[in-house]
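TODO from last week: model Putative DNA-binding ribbon-helix-helix protein.
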Amino acid sequence: MTVLTSHRLPFPVLAAVHQATAPRSLVPRSVRVGSRRTSMRLEPQFWTGLDLLARQEGCQIAELLDVIDRSRDAETSLSSAVRVVVVSYFQWLASVETLATPVQAPQQNLSQAFF
């Protein structure tokens, strides 16, 4: 994995932020969770992340959703729990890959990094 040398976000990241916050950016899908069918709305990036996570772990999305559903607390929606799991999984993967080369903390604050 490459060490981040610039504190400016690359154009693709900004484009993804714009796409994720655009109207109608949530994609509804009918899914199976345990023995029931339900529908869930997620951003396209989370559907892709969920698919990649399931493939990486050698399971079906339905199996993964069942585990997430059984593990979440009653006050957390399934969609929110899926988002947290997907982000956490890829953060963990990134940390495993960069253990030998830690990324240095940025010298700028977040608002400076955007402009």
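Done. The longest helix spans residues 78-97.
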